[in-house]
Structures are given as C-alpha cells and as structure tokens.
Automatic annotation (TrEMBL):
<protein>
    <recommendedName>
        <fullName>Exostosin GT47 domain-containing protein</fullName>
    </recommendedName>
</protein>
<keyword id="KW-0472">Membrane</keyword>
<comment type="similarity">
    <text>Belongs to the glycosyltransferase 47 family.</text>
</comment>
<feature type="region of interest" description="Disordered">
    <location>
        <begin position="81"/>
        <end position="151"/>
    </location>
</feature>
<dbReference type="InterPro" id="IPR004263">
    <property type="entry name" value="Exostosin"/>
</dbReference>
<feature type="compositionally biased region" description="Gly residues">
    <location>
        <begin position="83"/>
        <end position="93"/>
    </location>
</feature>
<keyword id="KW-1133">Transmembrane helix</keyword>
<keyword id="KW-0328">Glycosyltransferase</keyword>
<dbReference type="GO" id="GO:0016757">
    <property type="term" value="F:glycosyltransferase activity"/>
</dbReference>
<feature type="transmembrane region" description="Helical">
    <location>
        <begin position="20"/>
        <end position="37"/>
    </location>
</feature>
<keyword id="KW-0812">Transmembrane</keyword>
<keyword id="KW-0735">Signal-anchor</keyword>
<feature type="compositionally biased region" description="Low complexity">
    <location>
        <begin position="117"/>
        <end position="133"/>
    </location>
</feature>
<feature type="domain" description="Exostosin GT47">
    <location>
        <begin position="230"/>
        <end position="495"/>
    </location>
</feature>
<dbReference type="InterPro" id="IPR040911">
    <property type="entry name" value="Exostosin_GT47"/>
</dbReference>
<dbReference type="Pfam" id="PF03016">
    <property type="entry name" value="Exostosin_GT47"/>
</dbReference>
<keyword id="KW-0808">Transferase</keyword>
C-alpha cells in the first residue's frame, strides 16, 4: 500500500507543470519545421540574382528590362516557354557512391530577342521563374520529356528542402554541386559586367587581332566577350557513343565543318574539360551528316531511325549524368550543319526547345583544307556583275533559274557550267556572288564567296547569316528577298563603285572568321563557332536553389 501511494505521488503534477510539459514538444516541432522549410532570398524570389536574365522588352513594357548582352552584341537570345522550367533526376559520374541523389533545378530561363537599346538602365527585379517539383525517385528518360517525368508548380514554396530517402547525404552532395554551379554562374556574371563596360569603352590591346570597323555590331563588346571566353569557357564532351555516328564526322564535303569541329573540340586543351563540374556547356557529339549516311535508309523518307538514335543517346546521358536533367538541356549543344539537323532535334522535345543548336557555316573542303581556295583579284579586275552556278535544290533556286538562267551577260546564272570553265575562277571574276538558300538556309556559297573576295548576295526570306550575333552582314553583303529576284540586276547595278569597294574590303577583313585551320587559330571559324555557343550560354541562368 505504501508503494502504491508513493507511485501516485511521483506521477502527480500541478496544472502549470502540465502546461509546460505540453509546450516543450510543440516548440521543438516548430523549430524542426523552420529548419526544413524552403528558403527564400531576402527579396522573396528564388533566383533573384537572375531577374534580368528572364526579362525582355517583348514580355514587359519597360525598356529597362532589356537583356544587357543583347543590346551590346545583338545576341539572338532565347525565350523561356511556360512549362520548360523544371527538374529531373539522373545519376552522376562524379557523385557519391550509390545511390546517386537527384538534383534540383530552379529557374532555368531563356530570353527572347530584345528590341530596346536601353541596356545600361537599372535592373529592377522581375517575376521569378517557375519552381520545379522534385520528380519521383526514378531516372528520367528522354522519351518522356514531353509527358509526366517532371511537373511544374507556380507556387515556388513547394520546392522541398531535401529528399527524406537520402537525408543529409543528399544535402551535402547538393551543396557541393551548388558550390560548383554557383562558381560558374559568378564567373558568367563577371563576364557580363565586363562586356557591358566594354560596349562604350576603348578598344583593348590584342597581339593577334583587334576587331574594329562597321563589320561588327559592336567591335569592343565582341572583343571583350571573346577574351572572356578564352579565359573561362569550358566544354564537357560526353564520351558515350562510338564512331562512325558519334565522335566522328565528314571532313571532305560540304559538311566538312561538322567533322572538323568534332575533331578540334575533342583534342582542344584550352576549352575542353574532363571534369563535368567545371563545364559551362555539354556537347552531344553525334553527327547528323553521319546519321544520314549510316542510319537513314536511302530514299525511304523515314526520319524514324535518326530520331530514335537521338532519343537513345539522350536517354543514356540523362541516366548516367545529372546535367541534362539539371537544365532540361538548356546548357547542352548539338551540331546542325546538315539540312536535317533541325529535324533530328524534334526527336526530343527539350532538345529542340531548350538546347543550343549550332547551325554553323558550310565550308566545302574538297581536300580537307582551304589551300587554293583563299584570295581573289581587286575590284578593278572583276568584270562580271553577278554569278551563280548550281542545280535545283529548294524552291528559291527554281525561281532564280527561271528568271536569269543564261539570259543576261552581266548576271551569269547557270545550272551547269560549260566544260572547261572553273567554278572558283568565275567567282574570282565576279563582283557579286549569288547565294540562294536550299531546302534549309545554309549554303557553302556564302563562305566560298568570302574566300574569293566576292561580295555575297543572300537570297532568302528570314535568313539568319552565320555569326550574325557579332557580324553586321549588311555592311559587307547584299540581302535580297525572294520577291526581289526579278529585280536582281537593278538592285546590284544601283550600288555605286565607291560603296562596292568598301563592301569588298570588308569581305576581306571578315574572312579570318570563316577560315579553317588545323590547329585552329584565334578568331577563325572554329573559335567563332565556340563564341556563338558561349554567347548563348551567357544568356542562360542556372540555379540549384535549396
């Protein structure tokens, strides 16, 4: 009985004590919720540091939201479409041992072309990008990119702080990735600032070449951007895949630049990195030209085998590395030298919508080198007003041949040249070289004209010439729409001798940007292609926000 009384006495507590005991666990739970909850930046935006990256004068009325680099370099920047921001999951070749934790992406944003020049105005905050929910704990598949392997939620507070299945192991891994990514983004911010300052500054010194003149949209900004690229730009080349379709390409045809670029970027020590955590962009090293040769069934008109090859490759790299899913392909690039490059990209929705598709100039290297192709006489030794020779390839050439084939001594247009007449000699004897687009816009005649000192005449509707983010094509070429083909002679004859001489000299000055060298030389076509990729990466802001 005494024991029973003592036990009851031990369990008896006053009402105030009961209240205290009740409050202690509640306070502890509240503290845990505060630690685990998603965090905002001081301004309330998830990625407030990139407010200017996803604003544009087309989306907002205020001209102060113009992307800075676009006004400085006229970069054809990209627009973020609703639903394209999101996250995925993939393994990692550099992560911790199994299981590989998933990564989050918040605010993978692109911008559309700006129309305002007020690029130095203050940068007000903009609406933040969509926050991406963490997908199920399964490896993302490229074949499901347009379906339900990820979801987008407008409520930015729904991003979880960590995945309970991995706990603090994942937290540490994500923090390391954040540190690497944030370091890369900080370097890009410094590059943007430097380019902004160079726009209105003085030319910088350079031992090899200083861009200057009306051939450039902004010579100082281009020069500073190029130097920044040399200083920090890094590319990771996926090693998966075997030749002849992967890590290989033609080197002696009109698609020679595809094989040339693949080879040069893979042996390059300045820009290529073996550590993907150092990379600003990721190269998908397949050749569309080689797919046409080895995968496509001739005359079948079936793109299915090419598309399945692309889908399978994206599946492999998305499952093995985290980087495709981190950005949904926004920091990945593929080559599209062949006419079917855009068609191949349709296979994977995010590849087509998000990724960088490099449509570089076609260079017809019969011997694999430019020997014998460079150079031409002065304007006084060019007796032919305009020249074109080529078969039917696309609707525009049909119109050109219909109006001008063998009909004028000054405008020499031929489907086939007479026996013994040299194609390149005709270009060197001509003031203007007619460059109509084929089924796609690319044509090797553009570079052939520049090589021979012939002013290019670009015939196309809505054609974006090579490197137009840097070069001012109107200063050294003539643009003619399809409707103006019947008036071609009148248009060219109306250009004064003085103006033509200026244009022809500018063609000679920009030629360095189209020359192919092995090994590559600064400012040549290889480096200009890299610079185009670099510019597009400058206009994409990535953030793994915790």
């Amino acid at each position: 009985m005494d024991c029973e009384k003592k036990l009851r006495a031990c369990w008896f507590v006053s009402p105030s004590t009961k209240l205290l005991l009740l409050m202690v666990p509640l306070v502890a739970v509240a503290g845990l919720v505060a630690v685990a909850a998603p965090r905002k930046s001081p301004a309330g935006d998830l990625v407030s540091a990139y407010s200017w990256l996803w604003s544009s004068s087309r989306s907002y009325s205020s001209p102060t939201r113009t992307p800075i680099l676009d006004a400085a370099l006229q970069i054809p920047v990209l627009h973020a479409e609703a639903g394209d921001g999101g996250s995925g999951r993939g393994g990692s070749a550099v992560g911790p041992p199994a299981p590989d934790p998933p990564l989050m992406v918040v605010g993978v944003q692109k911008m559309e072309r700006a129309v305002s020049d007020d690029s130095l105005a203050p940068e007000p905050s903009a609406s933040p990008p969509l926050a991406a929910e963490r997908p199920p704990n399964k490896t993302s598949s490229a074949t499901k990119e347009g379906t339900s392997d990820f979801s987008v939620n407008v409520a930015r507070n729904n991003v979880p702080a960590f995945n309970e299945s991995y706990g603090f192991v994942e937290k540490a891994w994500q923090k390391r990735v954040d540190t690497d990514l944030e370091r890369l983004e900080a370097g890009l911010r410094r590059a943007r600032s430097g380019i902004r300052e160079a726009k209105s500054g003085n030319p910088m010194e350079d031992p090899d070449y200083v861009p200057v003149g009306p051939m450039y949209r902004n010579a100082n900004a281009f020069h500073r951007s190029y130097l920044e690229m040399e200083k920090q730009f890094k590319i990771f080349v996926y090693k998966e895949g075997d030749p002849p379709v992967f890590h290989n390409g033609p080197c002696k045809s009109i698609y020679a630049m595809e094989g040339n670029f693949i080879h040069m970027v893979e042996i390059n020590k300045r820009f290529r990195t073996e550590d993907p955590r150092e990379a600003h962009v990721f190269f998908l090293p397949f050749s569309v030209a080689m797919m046409v040769q080895f995968v496509y069934v001739r005359d079948s008109h079936d793109f299915g085998p090419i598309k399945r090859t692309v889908i399978d490759y994206i599946d492999v790299v998305a499952g093995k590395y985290p980087y495709w899913n981190r950005s949904l392909g926004a920091d990945h690039f593929m080559l599209a030298c062949h006419d079917w490059g855009p068609e191949a990209s349709f296979a994977v929705p995010h590849l087509h919508r998000n990724s960088i598709r490099v449509s570089f100039p076609e260079v017809n290297l019969h011997t694999g080198a430019i020997g014998g192709l460079i150079g031409g006489p002065s304007p006084s030794h060019r007796s032919i007003l305009a020249f074109f020779a080529g078969g039917l390839h696309g609707p525009m050439r049909h119109i050109l041949l219909q109006h001008w084939e063998n009909k004028d001594e000054d405008v020499k247009v031929h489907r086939y040249l007479p026996r013994g007449v040299s194609y390149y000699d005709m270009m060197r004897r001509s003031k203007f070289c007619i460059c109509p687009s084929g089924y796609e816009v690319a044509s090797p005649r553009v570079v052939e004209a520049i090589y021979t000192g012939c002013v290019p005449v670009l015939i196309s509707d809505h054609y974006v010439p090579p490197f137009s983010d840097v070069l001012n094509w109107r200063s050294f070429s003539v643009e003619v729409t399809v409707r103006e083909i019947p008036n071609l002679k009148t248009i060219l004859a109306s250009i004064s001798s003085r103006q033509y001489i200026r244009m022809q000299r500018r063609v000679a000055q920009v030629r360095r940007h189209f020359e192919v060298h092995s090994p590559p030389k600064r400012y040549d076509v290889f480096h200009m292609i890299l610079h185009s990729v670099w510019l597009r990466r400058l206009n994409v802001g990535l953030s793994d926000n915790q």
